[in-house]
Each structure stands twice: as C-alpha cells, then as structure tokens.
Amino acid sequence: MRQLKAACRSGALARRAALAASARIEGSLALADHAAALAFPGGAVVSGFWPIRDEIDPRPLMDALRARGHPLCLPAMVGEDLVFRRLTRDTPLVRGGFGTVEPASEAEEVVPDCLLVPLAAFDRRGARIGYGRGFYDRAIARITDRRGAVPKTVGLAFSVQQASAVPEEGHDRRLERVLTEAGLITCGAAA
Fold first, then answer.
1. Containing domain of residue 127, as a range?
2. Angle 21-32/59-67 helices, nearest 10 degrees?
C-alpha cells in the first residue's frame, strides 16, 4: 500500500510541478470565483491553509469567504496533531512545520466547521493523498468526535492532480468535494 500511495503521490506532484507559474497563479485566483458555490452555512468557521511549494494558493478563496462573513482559521502543528487558530488581518504569523506559516500560539484556538484541505492527489470518490503524515485524517476524526458530526471538507487542487483511483487505507478520510481551477466536484462512491 505504501508503494501504491507513493507512486500516486509522486505522479500527481510531478504533474503539478510541471504547470507554468502563470497557470498556478490563474488557477489559484479562479478558486475565489467559486466561493458562493461552496454554500457553507452562514457564519461557519472555515479553516484554510498556507500554501507550500507549488500548491494551489487558497488565499484568494479564503479572502472571498471572509468577505462573505466566514470567520477564518489556519492549522498549526502541535506535536503530531493540528490545532486550528483564528486568523484575522491582524493575527501574527510564524513559521511552522513543512515550510508553512501559522498563527502564533497566542491566537485563539477554534474548531472549524469547514475545512479547505491541501492534497497531493485526489479521485472523484473523494479519496485523497496528502504528504504522508496523516495530519488531516487525524484532525477530521478529532473534530468529528468532538462535534458528533463530520466537518464539511473541500480539497483544493489543480485539476492535473486528479488520479483515476487513489489507494486508500482504513484510517483515510474521504473529502465531500474537491475544488479545482476548473470548478467544483461533488465526490461520491459511484463517481
């Protein structure tokens, strides 16, 4: 299974890395055009993420969601887990793990209602491969246990990151939807 996931991840990341810089910029900006289509409940707390390497940049989408009245937060790595800290225009940001940026430890911790999830590869069923450490799978499980309901999840990626089938293990959490520069995909077992 590890080799299957590694092959799927490396293929998708190679396709992403091959995108021209202008395509990455335009694709990232295109996400914001779909803020209304996400139809998150009014006032729902949305967790974004700070992009690393050549990931699609969620910040234009996050700003569009903020403008629609959604409080924002960002994940912060604490040991082997993610906590979510409120993000405002005044929130001090610090360097975090994996080369990302996160709110400083003084920022208020929140439990997001909706998660914008980074990924390496995805399929139309909602299976995803991240970077191999399971941070989001554990975070989704913890939020589900705490709230008694699964948070709304939307993977963010470039369309070239789609795979025909992503290998899955029992602990892997599927996404409800995936948003690419080409539009919103509703995931499902029959997809």
1. 2-175
2. 20
